[in-house]
Structure formats: C-alpha cells, structure tokens
Amino acid sequence: MTWTQAPLLPTALLAAIAGAARGQDTLFSIEGAGAGDRLGLSVAAFPDLDGDGWREIAVGEPLHDGPNGSNSGRARLLSGRSGAVIWNWDGEGPMDQFGQVIQDAFDLDGDGVHDVAITAAHYPAGAFNGRVYLYSGATGLLLHAWTGENAGDFFNFSRGVAGG
Ligand SMILES: [Ca+2]
Ligand SMILES: [Ca+2]
What we know:
The strands form four sheets. Strands 5-6-7-8 form a four-stranded antiparallel beta sheet, with no helix packed on it. The chain has a four-stranded antiparallel beta sheet with strand order 9-10-11-12, with no helix packed on it. A two-stranded antiparallel sheet has the order 1-3. The two termini are 15 Å apart. 0% of the residues lie in helices and 33% in strands. It is globular. By secondary structure, the protein is mainly beta. It binds calcium ion (CA) (2 copies). One calcium ion (CA) binds next to loops. The site of one calcium ion (CA) has 9 residues, from loops.
C-alpha cells in the first residue's frame, strides 16, 4: 500500500491513501480546524495499530490552538480504512508546536504494536528546550517523554531518523 500527499494548503491537507491496485484513489481527506493550523506539516504512515487489518496514518497540526493554548499543536492517528480518529494528542502548553514531526517508533514497549513518536521542539514557551513524546500505538497512552537538557536546544529528531 502506498500513500501520497497533495500539495499543502495553509489550513488543509488532502491525505490521499491509494490502494496498490487502485492507483491514486482518494479514500478520505481532512482539513485543519482553524486558519493557520498547518495540518499536514507532518504525516507518517504506520502498520495496522487497531487490529482491523488496515494500516494507519498520523497527521500533525503544530500551530493548532488546542486546549492548552495558542499554537500548542496536536497530532492525530487516523484509521487507514475510514479516516476516523483513533488517537488524539494535544501539546502541553502554548507555543509548543507539538506535532512538528511524527515517526513510527516501531514497538518499543514490546506489546507487539508499533508506537508513535511526536516532537514539540518549541516546548516550553520561551525556553525552547524541546520535547519528544512516545505514545503507545495500542492504547494511545504516553509511554515516555524526553526533554532537551538546555534552553534553546530545540530537542527534536529529524524526519527519517526513526522510521524505516
Ligand atoms: Ca488499522
Ligand atoms: Ca508498542
């Protein structure tokens, strides 16, 4: 199975997942909730995490104004079958820009289901130590978080480092 990403728009991403036998058919699309949310700045494909036999896709929305403040950001794991939200994760504080990078972290807790790594390089506001979160792909719960040692570290990881 392959997926393709349409050109980014300011608030919208057309997430097109195409079955191998069907070329470029659009199965579902989603849009950012508000102007400037930058949904689709990060997109990552995952193996089947909810056990329905279909792979999943995760999308980041780092400038989303979530429950924890302006530009706190969020990331969502979507069902590759229906586009329904399986897990929703919000940034911890204003300006965190959670969801800048999302990666398949493989199965780090040994439960047989791949896990999800998400960055918030601007965490916390004003200091920018940066933070990386690891969530269980099976339960959506936070397994671990690492924070940059010093202000200004922008602790993060680059696209392509963890995936493969
Ligand atoms: Ca699935
Ligand atoms: Ca796991």
